[in-house]
Amino acid sequence: MRSSWTAAVFLAFILFLHLPAAAGAKELSPQEEAGLYSLADLGPVDLAPKKVTVELYVAPETELAACRRMMPLVWNRVRAFYDRMGVTLVHQEGGPQPGPLAPGARLRVEMLTHKQWLARSYQAFDVAPPFRLRFLQVCRDKCAFAHLPLSVIHVSFKNFQDAESASKSGDGQANRDWLANLLIHEVGHLLGLYHAHEFVNDAVPEYLPDGKTPNFMSHQIAFKTELGWVDFQKRLVHSYLGRGKVYQQYARVDFDPLRYLELIKKHNGYREPKSGKTDGIRKKSGKQGSPKTFDDDDNGEEDDLAKGSSQINDVR
Ligand SMILES: [Zn+2]
Question: Separation of 144 CA from ligand 1 center, angstroms?
Fold first, then answer.
């Protein structure tokens, strides 16, 4: 499964993304690899404002009627968040078929019916029919998946609504905040960021120094009115979008977040939390058909997420 997936991604790059073929890239020496994946020195990072085009597609089905009503205000919030980081999200109305997408340049958000979301997730993860029942269990408490190599985010609005009603909020503003936070988090993955809880000794804490504002790449984002970031994350994003070191790191692994995480872990001495709260890196490479994505996300119930994520790890 892995090889067919890799082949598909490779083909997509050649056909649609016009990226240089990674297979043709020269092997790095161990020293070169260590230098490339060291995050201690990102080299010069151009922090000038940058633009990223985002196709926003809301499926036409009536299941998405409430989503359609919420989206203008939700998207304003997403845009305002990234404006503060110096990243302008240029909105484009998405049609049923994606336009030409490219990592860090042209992204797509799909708000889908639950059925569509499952179908697209099966496809993106390359989940073969015998494993779909199990994947269904994994998906029960997920609202979205961000697929970095595909530059696409798939959102199940139904799962979001279910999580929302389970929390008994009923407050329209709070629900919009939560949906916006979910999209802010997922777009963060497509801008090259990993989870705040991924490592215990990196420069990305789950909460800001005030102790109450959640990091937007944490899982503590449900119903929060404010999310924040640390300067290091802003530098990672600008390095990625500016085709700097972070972009080179990803390009070298064909935008596979799991290979990226393994390499930055190795070359920065990062450690994963003992309790296994992290979900990305535990999907060890080498097993066939590992989902090549950062996650998940996010109904804000960490235990469920951890459980769901470990189940994802076993989907083969
Ligand atoms: Zn995530």
Answer: 9
Count how many Cα atoms sit within 13 Å of the Cα of residue 263 in the half-sphere of its side chain.
Answer: 24
* Ligand 1 centroid distance, CA of 63 (Å): 24
pLDDT for 138 equals 85
Instruction: Give residue 26 CA to ligand 1 midpoint distance, Å.
Output: 31
The model's pTM is 0.82
The alpha carbon of 31 and the centre of ligand 1 are apart by a number of angstroms equal to: 31
* Cα of 30 from ligand 1 centre, angstroms: 30
Q: Are 187 and 143 in contact (CB under 8 A)?
A: no
The mean pLDDT of the chain is: 84
pLDDT at 166: 82
- 55: number of Cβ within 10 Å: 21
User: Domain ranges in the chain?
Assistant: 2-313
pLDDT digits (tens, 9 = 90+) for 46-89: 999 999 999 999 999 999 999 999 999 999 999 999 999 999 99
Distances 36 to 171, 191, 221, 267, 285 between C-alpha atoms, Å: 47, 18, 32, 9, 20
**Is 229 in contact with 215 (CB distance < 8 Å)?**
yes
